[in-house]
Specification:
Length: about 70
């Protein structure tokens, strides 16, 4: 997916996902939100964030790299 790998010292929290999202790391934020959604299926805000980030991540993948 993104830059997060097994063994990374990272906390899977909504706050961490928000930080990653603000930094433009949409794939990593999306992964964290999906993990949180699996563990807290009653939190409907996570579904909204996941759908929004899917679109942002897809657009970022399709856009040409800066400086290319």
């Amino acid at each position: 997916m993104g830059n997060i790998k097994a063994g990374d010292d990272i906390f899977f929290t909504a706050t961490m996902a928000e930080v990653l999202e603000k930094q433009g790391h949409f794939e990593d934020a999306l992964m964290i939100y999906k993990i949180l959604a699996d563990t807290t299926p009653w939190d409907q805000t996570l579904s909204y964030k996941i759908e929004r980030l899917k679109g942002l991540a897809e657009r970022k993948r399709k856009s040409p790299a800066k400086g290319a």
